[in-house]
Design a protein that fits this description.
- The protein contains eleven helices and twelve strands.
- The radius of gyration is 22 Å and the shape is globular.
- By secondary structure, it is an alpha/beta fold.
- Helix 2 packs across helix 3.
- It has an eight-stranded mixed sheet. Strands 3-4 form a two-stranded antiparallel sheet.
- The chain has a single domain, classed as Rossmann fold.
Length: about 290
């Protein structure tokens, strides 16, 4: 055997060894067991219990009766489908409730593609990034939902580590980018491959939202959460209000959705009198109740 041939084979063996080491380094190993299955089962059944137990730091005060009614409506929409709009006062926790409900719907796997829409794209993206931060820092979620949280923790907030992440040799297909989360694909997990995307009614992409799964299937949004679609500047402009009303009726409510029946929740605060946000509720069959 020539020196060149021995050198070539040596390089091939070294390259293969590096590949194996890299693959093993990206393997997160087995998913830890659920620490409190009973608490998890209760949280999956009840959005109110999930919010007060896992996100108690965000809700230091007891929920009012009006807030509990809103939470019950969101829970119903997530579980069975439907749509409603809710107007609540500033500081009443509407955005935080919507954020928590988005996480809850994804963790329980009832909704496979959730889109969070803000007044502008930055607002929607910031909400999804906040959900990612909750997953990465909430130890109670790690205890009870390890099939989701443990793979995200293994990334150590490095998006580059998502590529090639494996669990017992199988790719998890996890993604964590600004404004988009793709939950890890774990055998037996109800939330495998769940997608959460943040965007805006202004300057965001609303048409054509879809996600291709590893098996080639394409899924589309099956839950829409629209929060505070007006800003202080646009609320005083009849033209801007009309544009947002048109976006709601012509884009958001006409999403091509995946089964099961889509759910849609919209929250906001009353900024100015006029047609928006009251008109879309009347014209599209939204159930609207002011808890001011």
């Amino acid at each position: 055997m020539s020196d060149y041939e021995r050198y070539r084979r040596h390089r091939e063996r070294a390259a293969e060894t590096q590949k194996v080491q890299a693959r093993e380094g990206r393997d997160i190993g087995p998913i830890p067991p659920i620490k409190k299955p009973r608490r998890r089962r209760r949280a999956i059944k009840s959005l109110l219990y999930f919010l007060t137990t896992y996100l108690d730091a965000a809700f230091p005060l007891p929920f009012s009766d009006d807030q509990k009614k809103v939470i019950a409506k969101i829970e119903h929409a997530v579980n069975t489908g439907g749509k409603f709009a809710e107007a609540m006062p500033r500081g009443s926790g509407k955005s935080t409730i919507c954020e928590g409900a988005t996480l809850w719907a994804a963790l329980k796997g009832r909704r496979k593609f959730v889109v969070f829409i803000g007044a502008v794209a930055d607002f929607g993206v910031a909400t999804v990034d906040s959900i990612a931060s909750e997953i990465e820092h909430n130890d109670m979620l790690l205890d009870d939902f390890p099939e989701v949280v443990f793979p995200f923790r293994a990334l150590e907030q490095s998006n580059n580590r998502a590529k090639g992440q494996r669990c017992l040799g199988v790719l998890t297909e996890i993604r964590r980018t600004s404004g988009k989360l793709v939950f890890p694909t774990i055998p037996g997990s109800l939330s495998s491959g769940v997608v959460i995307v943040g965007t805006g009614i202004e300057g965001g992409k609303l048409r054509g939202l879809r996600h291709k799964l590893p098996d080639g299937r394409v899924i589309r949004p099956d839950m829409i959460v629209a929060d505070d679609l007006q800003t202080d500047e646009t609320a005083g402009s009849p033209g801007e209000c009309a544009k947002r009303e048109k976006a709601i009726t012509g884009k958001i409510l006409l999403f091509r959705v995946s089964p099961p029946r889509t759910s849609s929740a919209r929250s906001g605060r009353r900024l100015e009198s006029g047609r928006f946000p009251k008109s879309p509720c009347r014209r599209t069959g939204y159930l609207r109740k002011s808890s001011a």
